Amino acid sequence: MVSSKVSRVSDVQALLADGSWRLDDTGAAVFRLAPDSAARRRELVEQLGADPSDAEQWESVLIEALLTDPATAGLRELELHLTDYHHSARRAAEAIATVPRDRLTSLTFGHDFTYLYAPATTSTGAKFDPLDRLHEGFVHDSRNGLWEALPALRTLTVGGALLFDDIRSDTLTSLTVRGVPLSDGSLVPTAAPALESLRLDVPTDVFGVACPVLQLEELTPSRFPRLRRLDLSRCDFDTSDGEVDEILRATGMAGQLTALALPGDPALR
C-alpha cells in the first residue's frame, strides 16, 4: 500500500520505519505511537511537510500522512490506538473521512487508560484532563463526516472517555466499548438498528464512582431492535436505583436477548 502523497516528500518506507504504523497484505492497518523512534520523529514530520514545533501534534501528522492518501481506500480493518488524543482523535477522524471507505468493515478507535477520567499523559509527558471536554468531546464526528464515510462498518471497538458526539451507523452489527465513549457521558449510541452484539466494559472511575445503572434504560428494543447478545460482565454499576436485570426487564430488552452476561458473570464467548 504505497502512498503517492507521502512519496513526494519521503519514501513511504520512512513512515513505516518509524514503527508506529503496521500494515499487512490483508488490508489491515494498525497505529500505535512507537516509543523507540521518538528521537527521530521530528525529522520525519519535517519530511512529511508538517510543522514540527508541537511534538504533541506529531502523532496526528503520521496518521494523516497515511490515511489521507487515496491508496488507503481499500483498507478493510483499521486500528487507531491514540496517545495525544486531545489532538489526534479529531484529526484522525477527519483523515478517515477524506477517502471513501467502502471496504472498511472493522474499526478500533480510542486510547488506553488505567482509571476512567484520570488525567491523560501525552507523548511529551504533559497532562491534560479529559473532563475538560465533557459535552464538547474529542472527535467532533457530528461535524467531520466520520460515520458517513464508513458505509460498510460492521465491527467497532471503542476505548476511552468522551470521544464521540454519537455513534451513528445503520450497518454496525458488533460494538465493544471500554469506558464511556460519548461526549455527554453516555454509554450507548442514540440508535443502532443493525446492532446484534454489545459488550460494555465500564469500570469504576478515578473518583471511585460507578456508572449509574439507569444508563441501561437507553437500551430499548425500539432503539436496538436486533440486539441479541449483551455482555455486561466487566461493568461496575451503581445499583442504588435498581438492579441491572430489573432495568433490562423494565425496558423490554431482557425478553429480546438470547445471551446475557451480568456484572460478575463469565464473559460471553
Automatic annotation (TrEMBL):
Gene3D superfamilies: Ribonuclease Inhibitor
Name of the protein in its database record: Leucine-rich repeat domain-containing protein
High-level lineage: Bacteria, Bacillati, Actinomycetota, Actinomycetes, Cryptosporangiales
